[in-house]
């Protein structure tokens, strides 16, 4: 059973700091879809630290290379859920952060200098914007359904593959 909080707890912060990947979920229910949910987008964010600005505020650098659904949905007022999982053996857990996000151009964000202290060097794609999230509540659950996995390394542009996009997969030399 999940435990709910009004802010990021110290235990949740520890899990967030140690996570090699987090997931961001938003919904498309703006004016174009007559305020009904048209689609839900969930994006994995690997190689990009989730920075805790305060117990109710997180942010991350967003890079090009995929759709821009988080920013688009945030502009329509979509709620955002950030999910962090612990994959280590004997330490299962899930932290969810619920709130509202806004995307900001790099030049307009007051957080960009702090976020640039830990850029995602392995991504090798241009930075697109800052995703700035105000947290309204959090939850922690047991993570029983999270598999035990170990982190090998960050993915690079050269080995991102295209198999599932219908294009030929580049071969490594």
From TrEMBL:
UniProt organism field: Geodia barretti
Gene3D superfamilies for this protein: Electron Transport, Fmn-binding Protein, Chain A
Highest taxon in the source lineage: Eukaryota
Protein's recorded name: Pyridoxamine 5'-phosphate oxidase family protein ustO
Signal peptide: none
Residue ranges that the Swiss-Prot or TrEMBL entry lists as coiled coil: none
Taxon lineage: Eukaryota, Metazoa, Porifera, Demospongiae, Heteroscleromorpha
InterPro entries: Pyridox_Oxase_N (IPR011576), Split_barrel_FMN-bd (IPR012349)
Domain Pyridoxamine 5'-phosphate oxidase N-terminal: from-to ranges: 8-141
